[in-house]
Amino acid sequence: MTEHFSRPLLELSQVSIEFKTPKGLFKALDNVNLKIADGEFVSLIGHSGCGKSTVLNIVAGLLKATSGGVVLDGREVNEPGPERAVVFQNHSLLPWLTAYENVELAVKRVFKGKKTKAEMHEWIEHNLKLVHMEHALHKRPDEISGGMKQRVGIARALAMQPQVLLMDEPFGALDALTRAHLQDSLMEIQRTLKNTVIMITHDVDEAVLLSDRIVMMTNGPSATIGEILKIDLQRPRSRLELADDTHYNHLRHEVLAFLYEKQRKVEDFAQHAKKKNDTNAETQPRLKVVS
Ligand SMILES: Nc1ncnc2c1ncn2[C@@H]1O[C@H](COP(=O)(O)OP(=O)(O)OP(=O)(O)O)[C@@H](O)[C@H]1O
Ligand SMILES: [Mg+2]
Predict the structure, then answer these.
(1) 166: nearest Cα among 66, 72, 29
(2) What's the Cα-to-Cα distance from 222 to each of 17, 25, 50, 226, rounded to whole Å?
(3) Cα 273 to Cα 85: distance, rounded to the nearest angstrom
(4) Three-state DSSP class for 51?
(5) Ligand 1, atom nearest to 55 Cα
(6) Does residue 49's CB lie within 6 angstroms of at least one atom of ligand 1?
(7) pTM, entire model
(8) 32 lines ligand 1 (CB under 6 A)
(9) What are the start-end ranges of the H helices in 61-203?
(10) How far does Cα 149 stand from its chain's mean position?
């Protein structure tokens, strides 16, 4: 736990989950334990299929753990709630509503009876400004770029003033330049608002640049937390300056070593073995071991 964070806001205790499949029960997660402090930015990283989205969905209340559970600010999480806003990889905006109206829908849900109409209007514009979307308030999703749609998705989540922002590969579908812009915006927003964030990513540089801690998951089935890496780089962080920073590169190397040495995907070998078994020696060429 990083020292400068005061109290754990969110706690996952002994979280395990089994899915019913046609072949029987599949244990996706086994005994996941994690404490996240108020204002902390935590990234989840791990190979495809290890269970990152499953962890996030349990925290979001969209999935229920088979055993163990999640406590947010002293209350058990049993269902989705506006105090846990989710940003998905593919924006998930309503296509018939403008950027403004998409945010408005969430704001009305959370602040009805608490904010006046004028206050809500101001709040919607404020959040769209935070993500630099003030110039396209009245455009529909099909009239704006992928990066802009993702910005609106982030504005919508921020506008709910959630205790925890849950992001499932929020920039995964974007080109490198747009992704970099959005990462910078997110760092700036988080510095101002001190949001607690859990973000799933496949991008090692993104994880190191944005996080206070990187939670590295083992391969499934029965995936769990393998290692947790503390990212003690000073903020604000600049990607250009960090590119030549020895400590940054060391941290980056730690994540890469976890993913590609310690948790090297065994799928390749398994696939090869399966192929070998499936191969009919009469009709298929023999596989050669290449050193
Ligand atoms: N509803 C379900 N029923 C059965 N199996 C499931 C279900 N949801 C997820 N799984 C399985 O649980 C494992 C974890 O899935 P999950 O989507 O959490 O992985 P992930 O780490 O998010 O992968 P990716 O990086 O590809 O998004 C996978 O093996 C997946 O096939
Ligand atoms: Mg996923």
Answers:
(1) 72
(2) 9, 11, 8, 12
(3) 43
(4) coil
(5) 18
(6) yes
(7) 0.88
(8) no
(9) 99-111, 117-130, 146-159, 176-193
(10) 17
